[in-house]
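Renewal narrative, Specific Aim 1. Our central claim is that a sequence can be written position by position from structural information alone. The example that follows is taken directly from our test logs and has not been curated for this report. It begins with the structure tokens describing the chain, in the order in which they were read.
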């Protein structure tokens, strides 16, 4: 991995002193203004380089620099022209500023600050707009990346050898100390609907409502943020998950007929699938799990006490996934780093034998495979033939960054018709462009596991999506008044999931001859059921939106053109010219343009070459379902178990075996140990943990213990290991079993009631485990009387286990 140093010589001061961020959130869109304060503390002119992350889908729309009282606003120009102008200005002694997007990854930017005089201050302001992602709890997530991890570049690749664009993603800090600059952040939120609350993974000052109807509020980041993690904000509105439309007026000074002149509409859709179809999840599929085993996966999930290593959390998650798969499906597990390997030569049928083989290999997994190269394992997986009637579902787990993000996304997109891709970004600094891009191009779903988030519930949510039958025959139709036409700017919709948002940008052309309302209709088929979702919207532009919707629409269109260019389209020059034209008109960044600002009023004689400094950035790489054969079983269990015994008061009286942590990551530590980490670059360039003075020893999680004992068919054996989960002996369990009841049936009933009684708050994690168990018990109903034995189990739990 080629990483330029933080500074050109050791112990030189870094010129960046502070970052001030103002965020304005309007509905589903955030406008972010960041001001970076530079000071040249050296005795000669300086050129500073600052590499930093932005959200993957952000549209950078303003760049300016203020020196003293003079402000210089940058222009968007063709990239090569901007670079030439910057070099000419700096070499002639003029102050110049250049902002470029990485050619390899759209979430990385490089800022060049040229010819700062000795002792001079410069305040650089960058403004961008971005969409807010909708979470499962219907909150809207904004992430301010404060972390940019090193990106692995394999030796001998074009990027490693070129030294031009490759430098943008490789000029990243490899240090692990505190950054020498401060961050202040303020947020203003406004919405047509009342704001319920605002949460964050960082400490915030109290939320202040600006008006009485709670549609506007402000909040600030508390002082003392340490840059050890990204800043995440979660905004809760009333009815955030309802379909909506925002119509934005165009710019009257823009050329007639251009995208910036006409109104643009942003449609937010939330498809609702028929309930009876949702209840029937698939029991087939080929599930391929791809696990990052690079050195950085040996880091901790977060910095708080009791945290797991990332690789250990991934192994626990694999256990849950393997136990949740339906009998008869196919599966395989890949590990990758600088190389890759798979547990089986090709996907195998899921049964007790293959599950046991896989679990044995999973237990042996370590973060010992060097760097992060994901392209080659993906190529190998895609080269394997698909199994008939077993739709391929790819689950990718990584905490890393790769230099060739766009090449990876192009590969996933080229196989979008043969699989769905579900991606998971682990830890701070995981590339949003890579994680969200793989899910988008693979018609899947992306999840981020940050701070103290637990991986398991998010992964199991994605498994539920994977088990939903694919939505097919998707079409979007518009109904508009006479005189108005529409030009859809977003790529065709290829994937829909229950309750997940879909955005559509469209340009409205012409003038209405009377009507003031439009309609957009989305039609699709879901498991042979035709479904129609419709939204009516007002054509009158929404007030106070600025040009944020236009810029996001332009960004969406530019991204589509970039992919078309990389796919080897015939008219490459025409596509490139169209991208530059859109970028310049909208003032939005692209891979073929750059922001350039030159202070032509300032010129000084420069003797000798300018000193070059790399500005330090924080590096955080250290400190399914089956068809139920007995659908009424759940009701019988809930009725027979006497739920009052699981009230809060009853739980407080439970024996230690039933009072253990309900969180997979909430571990009990026997002694107070402090960990000491050393690191160095291994031969592949990945940061690896070299020694640990002492590590906390967490107790095993009871839920994972129980899940690990389940058979592939869904049942449990009545033995000492199961009794240990309940804090009992095998004899104590066996003595209470009715004579005519099979031991496995008794054990499985005990396991189910324990799950519903003691781990109900983690149901999203064991839901498929329980469904398999219920189905297995249902298949035994011809031999036993289930209600009678549910009663026996509930009596046993009430009078024996729970006392």
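The sequence written for that structure reads:
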């Amino acid at each position: 991995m080629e990483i330029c140093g933080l500074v050109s010589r050791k112990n030189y001061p870094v010129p960046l002193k502070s970052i001030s961020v103002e965020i304005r959130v309007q509905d589903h869109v955030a406008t972010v203004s960041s001001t970076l304060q530079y000071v040249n503390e050296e005795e000669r002119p300086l050129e500073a380089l600052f590499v930093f992350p932005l959200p993957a889908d952000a549209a950078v729309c303003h760049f300016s620099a203020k020196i003293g009282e003079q402000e210089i606003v940058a222009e968007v120009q063709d990239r090569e022209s901007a670079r030439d102008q910057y070099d000419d200005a700096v070499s002639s002694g003029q102050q110049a500023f250049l902002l470029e997007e990485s050619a390899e990854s759209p979430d990385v930017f490089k800022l060049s600050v040229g010819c700062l005089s000795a002792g001079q201050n410069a305040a650089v302001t960058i403004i961008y707009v971005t969409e807010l992602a909708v979470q499962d709890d219907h909150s809207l997530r904004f992430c301010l990346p404060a972390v940019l991890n090193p990106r692995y570049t394999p030796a001998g690749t074009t990027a490693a050898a070129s030294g031009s664009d490759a430098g943008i993603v490789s000029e990243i800090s490899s240090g692990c100390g505190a950054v020498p600059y401060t961050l202040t952040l303020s947020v203003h939120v406004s919405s047509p609907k009342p704001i319920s609350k605002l949460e964050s993974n960082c400490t915030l000052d109290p939320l202040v409502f600006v008006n009485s109807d709670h549609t506007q509020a402000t909040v600030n980041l508390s002082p003392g943020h340490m840059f050890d993690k990204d800043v995440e904000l979660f905004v809760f509105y009333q009815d955030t998950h309802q379909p909506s439309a925002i119509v934005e007026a165009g710019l009257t000074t823009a050329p007639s007929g251009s995208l910036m002149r006409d109104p643009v509409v942003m449609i937010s859709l939330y498809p609702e699938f028929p309930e009876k179809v949702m209840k029937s999840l698939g029991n087939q599929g080929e599930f391929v799990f791809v696990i990052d085993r690079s050195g950085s996966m040996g880091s901790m999930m977060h910095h708080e006490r009791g945290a797991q290593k990332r690789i250990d959390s991934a192994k626990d998650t694999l256990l849950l996934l393997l136990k949740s798969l339906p009998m008869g499906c196919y599966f395989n597990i890949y590990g990758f780093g600088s190389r890759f390997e798979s547990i089986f030569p090709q996907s195998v049928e899921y049964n007790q034998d293959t599950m046991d083989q896989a679990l044995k290999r999973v237990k042996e997994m370590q973060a010992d495979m060097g760097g992060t190269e994901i392209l080659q394992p993906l190529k190998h997986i895609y080269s394997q033939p698909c199994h008939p009637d077993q739709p391929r579902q790819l689950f990718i787990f990584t905490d890393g960054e790769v230099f060739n993000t766009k090449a990876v996304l192009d590969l996933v997109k080229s196989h979008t018709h043969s699989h769905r891709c579900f991606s998971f970004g682990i830890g701070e600094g995981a590339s949003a462009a890579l994680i969200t891009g793989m899910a988008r191009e693979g018609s899947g779903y992306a999840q981020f596991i940050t701070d103290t988030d637990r991986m398991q519930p998010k992964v199991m949510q994605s498994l539920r999506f994977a088990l939903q039958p694919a939505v097919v025959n998707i079409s979007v139709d518009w109904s508009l008044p006479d005189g108005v036409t529409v030009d859809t700017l977003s790529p065709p919709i290829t994937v829909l999931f229950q309750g997940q948002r879909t955005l559509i940008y469209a340009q409205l052309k012409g003038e209405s001859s009377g009507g003031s309302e439009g309609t957009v209709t989305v039609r699709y088929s879901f498991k042979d059921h035709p479904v129609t979702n419709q939204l009516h919207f007002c054509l009158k532009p929404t007030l106070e939106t600025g040009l944020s919707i236009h810029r996001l629409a332009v960004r969406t269109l530019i991204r589509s053109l970039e992919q078309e260019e990389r796919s080897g389209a015939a008219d490459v020059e025409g596509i490139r010219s169209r991208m530059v034209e859109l970028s310049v008109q909208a003032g939005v960044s692209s891979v073929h343009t750059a922001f350039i600002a030159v202070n032509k009023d300032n010129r000084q004689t420069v003797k000798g070459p300018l000193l070059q400094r790399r500005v330090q950035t924080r590096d955080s790489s250290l400190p399914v379902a089956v068809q139920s054969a007995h659908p009424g079983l759940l009701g019988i269990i809930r009725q027979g178990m006497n739920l009052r015994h699981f009230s809060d008061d009853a739980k407080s009286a439970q024996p230690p075996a039933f009072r253990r942590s309900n969180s997979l990551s909430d571990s009990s530590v026997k002694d107070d140990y402090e960990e000491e980490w050393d690191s160095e670059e291994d031969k592949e360039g990945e940061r690896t943990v070299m020694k640990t003075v002492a590590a906390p020893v967490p107790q095993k999680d009871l839920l994972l213990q129980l899940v690990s004992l389940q058979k592939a068919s869904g049942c449990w054996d009545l033995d000492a290991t199961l009794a240990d989960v309940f804090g009992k002996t095998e004899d104590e369990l066996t003595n209470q079993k009715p004579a005519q009841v099979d031991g496995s049936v008794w054990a499985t009933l005990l396991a189910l009631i324990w799950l519903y009684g003691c781990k109900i708050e983690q149901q999203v994690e064991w839901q498929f485990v329980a469904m398999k168990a219920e189905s297995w018990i249902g298949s035994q109903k011809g031999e036993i009387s289930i209600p009678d034995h549910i009663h026996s189990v509930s009596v046993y739990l009430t009078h024996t286990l729970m006392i």
